[in-house]
């Protein structure tokens, strides 16, 4: 059977996603993916526009996989239980699929992700979690940015070997989630008090 039989955008994206986990998203090239399939680079252009398109596809696949995992984890949970389930699913995905995860953190063309299920679901899950803490409006946006910054920063440092202290990382992670829960329950409001 010829290696190009069944070549399509989904198979190319999956191969690129697997390569990203192995060698990093920035090292995924069209030439490397073509070589994996035993074809010449031009054979891929029937299915993907260019390297940026391929990396965007990997990002969208990663976002969908991660949000599916988070959605299952938080189902039926609220408050701290939901926060811990969300955070653990996020961290586990980042550790298990570092290349796909890194792809989701790249700046992407807003039109390419506007209706992407993973991107939409990510916003929905984060908003649902934070509404459980009675946050809305700009407080919800700010708290969402705090969570993303914390989860991303921790996962990135951890997978990159940035924590060299003898304290195991799971213990620190649990304490960070305790602190985030406390902060979210006492979130400072930006609303001005009505004069009496």
Automatic annotation (TrEMBL):
Keyword terms of this UniProt record: DNA-binding, Transcription, Transcription regulation
Looking up PROSITE patterns in the UniProt record yields:
HTH_TETR_2
Instruction: Kindly give the Gene3D superfamilies that the UniProt entry links to this protein.
Output: Homeodomain-like, Tetracycline Repressor, domain 2
Domain HTH tetR-type stretches: 6-66
Determine if DNA-binding is one of this entry's keywords. Answer: yes
- Can the keyword Transcription regulation be found in this entry's annotation? yes
Residues annotated as DNA-binding are 29-48
Q: Which PANTHER family match?
A: HTH-TYPE TRANSCRIPTIONAL REGULATOR BETI, HTH-TYPE TRANSCRIPTIONAL REGULATOR RUTR
Instruction: Please give the name of this protein.
Output: WHG domain-containing protein
Species? Nocardia tengchongensis
